[in-house]
Design goal:
about 120 residues; elongated
């Protein structure tokens, strides 16, 4: 009986000592998409990250990563009618070679055990 209690107490003790340092790191990367047009409504294509000022609650933030995507050279698919103003569709009117950079993370809380979700 005493051996069983000693084993349970030993198993409940933490494996790390209190003297080991704990390091916690938090990183948040926010993607900000912009569409930039000149006074004539034409897309601006020669932008660099230095051309932008990013503010978070009035404080300047560093632009860590910058990329530019242009679809101005892509022609619409033949035979597709142009939509009237203020009418939108989710139909792809561009060739499949154009990437839309969509990232989806799906967590299935119904069919996945809690320990696997964590």
């Amino acid at each position: 009986m005493r051996l069983a209690i000693a084993c349970l107490l030993a198993a409940s003790l933490p494996l790390t000592s209190q003297d080991s340092p704990t390091i916690r790191v938090t990183t948040r990367m926010v993607q900000v998409n912009v569409i930039v047009r000149d006074k004539k409504g034409q897309p601006v294509s020669d932008l660099k990250k230095e051309d932008f000022t990013l503010l978070d609650q009035g404080k300047p933030r560093t632009v860590a990563s910058f990329s530019m995507t242009s679809t101005s050279s892509v022609a619409p698919v033949a035979g597709v009618a142009k939509l009237p103003p203020n009418i939108y569709s989710n139909r792809m009117d561009r060739p499949a070679a154009v990437s839309n950079n969509v990232t989806v993370i799906l967590l299935d809380g119904l069919n996945t055990s809690f320990s696997d979700q964590v």
